[in-house]
Amino acid sequence: MKIGIVGLGLMGGSFALDIKTPFPNSIIYGLDNSEDNLNKALKIGLIDHQIKYSELNKMDIVLVSVPVNHLLKIIPKVLDTVGKNTLVIDVGSTKEAICSLLKNHKNRSNYLAAHPMAGTEFSGPSAAQKNLYIGKTNIICEFEKTDNELGKFALEIFQGLKMKTIYMDPKSHDVHVAYVSHLSHISSFMLGKTVIEKEKNEDNIFDLAGSGFESTVRLAKSNPKTWTPIFLQNKTNLAAAIEEYVSNLNLLKELILNENEVELSEILNNTNRIKEILNNKIKDEK
Amino acid sequence: MKIGIVGLGLMGGSFALDIKTPFPNSIIYGLDNSEDNLNKALKIGLIDHQIKYSELNKMDIVLVSVPVNHLLKIIPKVLDTVGKNTLVIDVGSTKEAICSLLKNHKNRSNYLAAHPMAGTEFSGPSAAQKNLYIGKTNIICEFEKTDNELGKFALEIFQGLKMKTIYMDPKSHDVHVAYVSHLSHISSFMLGKTVIEKEKNEDNIFDLAGSGFESTVRLAKSNPKTWTPIFLQNKTNLAAAIEEYVSNLNLLKELILNENEVELSEILNNTNRIKEILNNKIKDEK
Lengths: 286, 286
Hints:
Chain A has helices at residues 10-18, 35-43, 68-81, 96-102, 148-160, 170-198, 202-208, 213-216, 224-233, 235-257, 261-271, 274-285, and strands at residues 2-6, 27-31, 49-50, 61-64, 87-90, 111-116, 137-141, 164-168. Chain A is of the alpha/beta class.
């Protein structure tokens, strides 16, 4: 199986590593607009060969793993050139903009809109890691618009990676991820900003970071080149999510200032349910 | 060495486990207002014997590890009865209220105000874990008000646990932890609340939790009995911290809605510095 990967960062690089477990005979062809990333990916063995855009039509799969603003240029460009039997997949964190853009593309049926819920706060080819995809949830949008045979092929690949596939329309996808993924990143970035501004003496931050700050701020280490365009493409949903979050923060502040112990502890107790919700998840995965 | 522990939850129980590494001959006496906790602590071997308040004067150290609202009743009660050579330490996350309360206590010099920056989101005796204290930062307040000999003894204990001791006045302590610890908990609890409210279908939460939500919301699993009184005792500093956090969230929302890519990515880039700040910490620890 010939696999072309456009964008050799965390997502593309990890796909290159993971796909060889279920499909050991895969040959990986890579492409990146950064010469440096391309050379690194070759050097550390993420990809077997480099490839040009004009050669992507020889691939069985083309995985496009670039920031979501670049996706809007690259996916149409790839679809323009691919042959009938090439499956084109993206792994972007927003789905409405890309699906709407491709609506009338002549090769729309070669494309599958996917969003694997996997990642770390690191980026670049050296951040690629084995097992990033294994067992994770994968959201597929507008499955009916992908060619039947190519769609089946895509599902075989995701099953090979032991991913849990769920289906959504692009609008719902963007609403859900605004809350469950993008808002987490916003809350973490702004926590980092607030603490850095207050603690001009950086030693204080790491001396005092033991009790919880470190994990809560982890996502603030994420790559701005990835996240700026995600926030912008999902701006309406995300603004609504931030507003609800802010309104909850203001409510809590008032309860604290009014020393309303009863309501304060009721809210914390209700939110504690997240423990059981996420425990179910862990049980499910085992 | 005889050690009495009042409050056999995560902090007290883990201290009981950790102290036996540098001081293997310690005998641990425990006390808890929950019969259930006391029996569990005996059963799993956290403590060697149970003890009554009236017997705490026979101890070399009394560690008080109860929620910060209970601290205000229990520490004076313990100090009322202890002998000249008993060191009383607390591990509460706020320091101004307790230090101010004890200002004129006749046995103030038996007390050391400590705050080990260590913890997990779990609670109760079964949450106790070895190495919770080892290598962590420990904040000591008003060290000069503790008897010289007892102060030296306390430092020996913290050195035995390989803790990094730093000194602060109670007011500064409460300001710093409002930002670096308490705000992290608030941001996490309110993220959990916002997502639970939006995602009435809980399956969505755990299906979609893969990309960052799980770690950002981890602290929302924390015990409300511990955190409600902490938030209330640190209300003024915490309200200011929440206000700055909310103002940063509102700023980001505006930049997103106005598609101000330049400023948005500048803010994310600046906040990325948290990576280096926390990396230094990790290097330091190694």
